[in-house]
Amino acid sequence: MTNTNYAPGPIKCRECGEEFETIEKGHLQSENCTGEVDDVEEYRSKYPDAPTRTTEMRDKIVDSLKG
Hints:
It comes from Haloplanus aerogenes. This is C2H2-type domain-containing protein. This protein has 67 residues and is of the alpha+beta class. It has one domain (6-66). Helix content is 34%, strand content 12%. The chain has 3 helices and 4 strands, in the order βββααβα. It has helices spanning 25-28, 40-46, 55-66; strands at residues 6-7, 11-12, 19-20, 53-54. The strands form 2 sheets. A two-stranded parallel ribbon has the order 1-4. Strands 2-3 form a two-stranded antiparallel ribbon. The two termini are 18 Å apart. 12% of the residues are buried.
């Protein structure tokens, strides 16, 4: 989760405009997206201030790691 920007509520993919809890490689490579960005690192480079995960999803991940 390095370099991850978080935001409350759903986040909008800056490539296609769809809303998600997390911007993931699978979405970026899907036919539903533009196909211009191949992975999350490239997305972060293109949109350095864009959130890639909601705070709610972050909390779910942290809770699952606690066991």
